[in-house]
Amino acid sequence: MKIVQFMNTDLTRVRPDTDFATLLATHASTETRHTYVVDEAGHLKGVVTNLDMLKRMVPSYLTSTLASSISDGAELIRKRFEECKHLTAADVMQRDFLLLNTEDTLIEADVHLHEGRYNALPVVDSAGILVGDIDRRVILKHIAVDICGLPAKA
Amino acid sequence: MFWVATCIFVVCYAAIVSEKIHKTKVALAGAALTLILKVLTQEDAFHNIELGVDWNVIFLLISMMIMVNIMSKTGVFQYVAIKAAKLGRGNPFSIMVIFSVITAIASALLDNVTTVLLLAPVTLLIADELEIDPVPYLITEALASNIGGTATLIGDPPNIMIASKAGLNFMDFIVHIAPIIVIIMVVWMIFWKVVFGKRLHVSEKNKIRVMAMNEREMIKDPALLKKSGTIMGLTILGFMMHGFLHFEPATIALAGAATLLLVSGEDPHHILVEVEWPTIFFFIGLFIIIGGTVKAGMISFMSQQMIALTAPTADNTLVLSMVMVWFSGIASAIVDNIPFVATMNPLLVELAAKIFGGTGVEALQHAKMMPVWWALSLGACLGGNGTAIGASANVIIVGMAEKAGKPITFLRFMKYGVPVTMLTLAISTAYIYVRYYYFG
């Protein structure tokens, strides 16, 4: 079973020069956990996850123990936002990530996701153009309904 | 064998200084070559006290790392740091002084890297809350950790090595080194007051943010804190009495680490994984390389050169001590002080044998030899403050600052480090002269 048959194609795409505030607003307003950074031709250049954005909004030195000492962290987060404002999607994105190909199979995608503990992986065609992504829920749904024959819930 | 041992030593030293290859890889490769080329036998390397691995140093380091790893999980260091910042009422210079003192005391009892790793995040947070540049605070912390670590036998690896080689005990360092470290801290803070006193300003609003921080949240495991605090206290008491009890420091530390592992309930796998094994194996490799140079006669040759240069006699080692402070200080600012002291230790043993006769405690702890050991300790430990690569704590601080988006350039570190190094070495020189030669 090829992943091209059931991958998500409704993706959030941004350009490398998208500013940080727009990127934050995009992540805050869409259901997707990933934003894909593509060039004009649609080649995938990088990935920004919700986790990447969350990490950017707090100082890197802050541990969970240390965070519990702060009475109100809103000021710290606002300060981080001001410090990050000059950044673009190209500065924030992950450049080193795993790519799936449209010819890859469901079982390959399943193993890649759990081996790397990814939430989702992008799918590109033979020209490197982003065409979709595969996430954990999509695979589970496909396994449950199409392979194991369980009833689909609305 | 002289030239084989010398070549291995010089090539390894150059490779360590260049930092192109990890120093542990270099030390282990050099040790392997020393054994394969039969400069040392395996019997020499593993079982000979004069030539081989100093297991007292190795087990003291491993045991202290185990204890510190367990204790760091309690959150006590972060608690003390936040409490201290509140004691300083959010005043930026008061916080700088209090943090320096805390770092120095913690570094005297624990290893410097752990101290700065635990305190630097709190420093960054408080600087953020006060909206001030954290860099002066971070560099001050690195400098304080190196100065504080000099005060005790267990505070800095060079002291552990010197103590083991010269047969010195914990109280020797408390009596001879700790007093001058207290003086150095006081003079340094006065100097820092002149430099920073009028430059650090924060608004009342930001001070209130610091005062609102809740330090009690830092203590994650009060039961573990009680257990580890008690055992650490007993271990330090053991260090103070180890000469009287006729135990080596490693025995005391091993007893403390084993007891804490038993009572803490921590998984030994997790605790042992966090031991800095690369550092431990660096020491092991280094001991074997240096043992090779001792056996081949290179150290004996170097000691003759040093005697010719400083002309020490059984009655007068003043020039040797003075040269030792500055030579060790400058060398340690440029190269890692661990290989430096590993080289100087056997050299001073040879030198003591030539001047005072014999290689026993009488020669090593001769009244005129003791200031030379203290000069080596002060020079090697304090010299590390000179540059960003002079001590492990400096490297950690620079790395953490960069990760936090506040990069510290090599030159900026030197701007703080060089004056402090010069000041502390000058005070050390005066101290050794006055205490051991003028009054001694």
List the helices and strands and how they pair.
The complex is a heterodimer of chains A (154) and B (440).
Chain A (H helix, E strand, L loop, with lengths): L12 E2 L5 H10 L4 E5 L5 E6 H7 L7 H4 L6 H11 L4 H4 L7 E2 L4 H11 L3 E5 L5 E6 H12 L7
Parallel strand pairs in A: 1-2, 4-5
Antiparallel strand pairs in A: 2-3, 5-6
Chain B lengths: L1 H17 L4 H14 L5 H6 L7 H18 L3 H12 L4 H18 L2 H19 L4 H15 L7 H10 L3 H7 L1 H19 L7 H8 L10 H24 L3 H16 L3 H6 L3 H20 L1 H13 L7 H17 L2 H20 L4 H4 L5 H14 L8 H12 L6 H29 L2
Helix pairs in contact in B: 1-2, 1-16, 2-16, 4-9, 4-14, 5-6, 5-7, 6-7, 6-8, 7-8, 7-22, 8-22, 8-23, 9-19, 9-21, 13-14, 16-19, 17-19, 18-21, 18-23, 19-21, 21-23
Keywords:
A: 154 residues, alpha/beta, CBS-domain, three-stranded mixed beta sheet, B: 440 residues, mainly alpha
Summary of the model, kept short:
Chain A has 154 residues and is α/β, with parallel strands linked by helices. Chain A has helices at residues 20-29, 50-56, 64-67, 74-84, 89-92, 106-116, 136-147; strands at 13-14, 34-38, 44-49, 100-101, 120-124, 130-135.
What do these coordinates show?
The complex is a heterodimer of chains A (154) and B (440). Chain A is 38% helix and 17% strand. By secondary structure, chain A is an alpha/beta fold. Chain A has a single domain (3-147), classed as CBS-domain. In chain A, strands 1-2-3 form a three-stranded mixed β-sheet. In chain A, strands 4-5-6 form a three-stranded mixed β-sheet. The longest helix of chain A has 12 residues, at 136-147. The model of chain B has no long low-confidence stretch (mean pLDDT 89). Chain A binds chain B through residues 59-63, 65-66, 68-72, 75-76, 79, 83, and chain B through 75, 78, 82, 120-122, 124-125, 128-129, 131, 209, 212-215, 217-218, 220, 400, 403-405.
